[in-house]
Design a protein that fits this description.
244 residues; alpha+beta; Acetoacetate decarboxylase-like; 16% helix; globular
Length: 244
């Protein structure tokens, strides 16, 4: 009887347990210009890279993105100018959140790369794959049609290219949710992008090294897809979620 009571109490305690969330760090980027290409990926390869707890749509898309920022902070401390680059698999939109491209996407991150050590360190410590790399991206700041080119020294080297039709618009605030699973739990970054003063869309291309992870994910060494870019600032809050 005592053992059954004990098991009942344990079960009740487990049922009442909730996940715990701990803020790891906050970071910002000011007056940033970004460039990204979205294209369809191999669904089986994407499934092998994304833990089973995350649902994937029938047609899966990948995001290859980078940005250059005039200044930023980590934990309130200025980092100066920096560049960032990321690759992610797009997750389904959550209820109540506008679907991409009207809203910020939900992403399972394959890596987060930086040109600045101060920006990079807390991301790597949190469990995001990535680190310090050379990122080449100097977008034009004027003109209706802007040629965007970028080169990232990671995964054998990959590049982006596109000619964006750029419009002076204010698209308002967008929220992107980024996830990665780590031994410590789920790392989740809430990326709030605001103060956007321009944006543009076009068809862009991404080129990957033969035998690279990106070539395997996208199924070829060169893909075409939706390209977009804009100007704005962001604030990230990165948290660790642990528990059942």
């Amino acid at each position: 009887m005592k053992s059954m009571i004990g098991l009942g109490l344990l079960a009740a305690a487990h049922m009442g347990a909730t996940a715990a969330t701990t803020t790891l760090f906050e970071s910002t980027g000011n007056n940033c210009r970004n460039f990204a290409v979205v294209a369809q990926v191999d669904a089986k390869v994407a499934r092998s890279l994304v833990p089973a707890k995350y649902a994937l749509p029938k047609t899966v898309y990948g995001l290859v993105e980078l940005a250059t920022c005039e200044s930023g902070t980590v934990g309130g401390v200025s980092t100066g100018a920096f560049k960032i680059a990321e690759v992610a698999i797009m997750l389904p939109a959550t209820q109540g959140k506008p679907a991409f491209p009207l809203g910020g996407p939900n992403l399972y991150m394959l890596w987060l790369l930086d040109s600045d050590a101060q920006q990079s360190a807390p991301k790597v410590a949190a469990g995001y794959p990535g680190g310090l790399v050379d990122i080449s991206f100097d977008p034009p700041t004027t003109g209706l049609i802007r040629e965007q080119r970028a080169q990232i020294a990671y995964d054998g080297g990959y590049s982006l290219k596109g000619d964006n039709l750029t419009l002076k618009i204010n698209v308002g605030k967008k929220v992107t949710d980024q996830y990665v699973e780590t031994p410590a739990g789920t790392v989740h970054t809430v990326n709030v992008i605001d103060s956007t003063t321009e944006g543009g869309f076009s068809i862009g291309t991404a080129t990957f090294a033969p035998g690279s992870l990106l070539a395997r994910l996208f199924g070829k060494t060169k893909v075409s897809g939706l390209a977009f870019g804009g100007q704005g600032s962001y604030r990230n809050t990165t948290e660790l979620i642990t528990g059942p």
